[in-house]
Write a structure and sequence with these properties.
This is SDR family oxidoreductase. With about 250 residues, the protein is an alpha/beta fold. The chain has one domain: 3-Layer(aba) Sandwich (Rossmann fold), CATH 3.40.50.720. It is about 45% helix and about 15% strand. A 7-stranded parallel sheet has the order 3-2-1-4-5-6-7, with helices on both faces. α1 links the parallel β1 and β2. The chain is globular, with a radius of gyration of 17 Å. Bound molecules: NADP nicotinamide-adenine-dinucleotide phosphate. The site of NADP nicotinamide-adenine-dinucleotide phosphate has 30 residues, from α1, β2 and α7.
C-alpha cells in the first residue's frame, strides 16, 4: 500500500484537504500536497495527514501557470518517484455575477486554472503512469462540478463552462488511456461547505440554497473525499470515464 504516490492539487483547504487526510487514513504512504497561497493551511493539513502515518511533501505551485506545473512534478519525482494517483482538484469560480459584467481577465484566469491547468497536470501524470510509456498504471480523478450540468446562470457561467470541459476531458481521456493501465474518472460535487463560496463574493450562498437541495443540506468536503477515494481505489477497478455526482440529489 505504501508504494502509492498520490498528488492532490489544491490540497491545503476544502475538498482537497479532505482528500489528503482521507487518503492518509486509507493508507496512502506518500502524498504531494500542492497549494498556492495559504502556507499555514497547507502545513495544518499536512500535519493531520502525517499524524495518520503518511509522508507529505508540501509543494507551492500555481497550477494555472505551466512552468509551476513542471516544477510541481519535478519536485514530486525527486521526493517520491513517479506518481501513481492524482486528484486534479485546484479550482476557482471567479466573482459571482452576470456574464456581461464579468472581468475578461478573471474569466481567462478561471479557464487557465480550471481547464488548461487541469489538462496540463493530467498530462504530466499520464507521462508517468502510462504502461505504454514505462509507467506502472494509475488512477486520475478530476474534480468537476454540478455547475457543468446546471449552468450556474447569473452566478458564474464561465465556471460552469470550465467544468463542462472537465467532463468531456474525463470521458475522452478515460477511453484514450483504458489500455494503458490508467483509469480516469470525475467527481461532480454539488453545494459543499468550503471557503469557495465566500471567495466568490456569494456570502450566505450555502444557507440560501440549502432548502433547494433534495437532501436539504450542503454536503461536506469529507463526503466528497469518500467518493474520490472510492474511484481512486481498486474497488473501482471497472469504473473509468464516469462522472460521479456527489450532490445530495441536486
Ligand atoms: P477551496 O475551499 O476554495 O480550496 C481551494 C484549494 O485550491 C485550496 O487548497 C487553494 O490553495 C487551492 N488553489 C486555489 N488556486 C490554486 C492554484 N492556482 N494553484 C494551486 N492551488 C490552488 O475550494 P473547494 O470548494 O475545496 O473546491 C475544490 C474543487 O472542488 C474545485 O475544483 C471546485 O471547483 C470544486 N467544486 C467545489 C464545490 C463546492 O461547493 N465547494 C462544488 C463543486 C465543485 P490556497 O489556499 O493556497 O489558495
Amino acid at each position: 500500500m505504501t508504494d502509492r504516490v498520490l498528488m492532490v492539487t489544491g490540497g491545503s483547504r476544502g475538498i482537497g484537504a479532505a482528500c489528503v487526510i482521507g487518503a492518509a487514513k486509507a493508507g496512502y504512504g506518500r502524498i504531494a500536497l500542492n497549494y498556492t497561497r495559504d502556507a499555514a493551511a497547507a502545513e495544518a493539513t499536512a500535519a493531520a495527514a502525517r499524524a495518520l502515518g503518511a509522508e507529505v511533501a508540501i509543494i507551492q505551485a500555481d497550477v494555472g501557470v505551466p512552468e509551476d506545473i513542471t516544477r510541481l512534478f519535478a519536485e514530486t519525482d525527486a521526493r517520491f518517484g513517479p506518481l501513481t494517483h492524482l486528484v486534479n482538484n485546484a479550482g476557482i469560480t471567479g466573482r459571482t455575477g452576470a456574464f456581461a459584467d464579468a472581468d475578461p481577465a478573471e474569466i481567462a484566469r478561471v479557464i487557465d486554472l480550471n481547464v488548461t491547468g487541469a489538462l496540463l497536470v493530467a498530462q504530466e501524470a499520464v507521462k508517468r503512469m502510462s504502461t505504454a510509456r514505462g509507467g506502472g498504471g494509475g488512477a486520475i480523478i478530476n474534480i468537476s462540478s454540478m455547475a457543468a450540468t446546471l449552468g450556474s446562470a447569473g452566478e458564474y457561467v464561465w465556471y460552469a463552462a470550465s467544468k463542462g470541459a472537465i467532463d468531456s476531458f474525463t470521458l475522452g481521456l478515460a477511453r484514450e488511456l483504458a489500455r494503458e493501465g490508467i483509469r480516469v474518472n470525475a467527481v461532480a460535487p454539488g453545494l459543499i461547505a468550503t471557503d469557495i463560496h465566500d471567495a466568490s463574493g456569494a456570502v450566505g450562498r450555502l444557507e440560501r440554497l440549502a432548502p433547494s437541495i433534495p437532501l436539504a443540506r450542503p454536503g461536506t468536503a469529507d463526503e466528497v473525499a469518500q467518493a474520490v477515494l472510492f474511484l481512486l481505489s481498486e474497488a473501482a477497478s471497472y469504473t473509468t470515464g464516469a462522472v460521479l455526482k456527489v450532490s445530495g440529489g441536486r
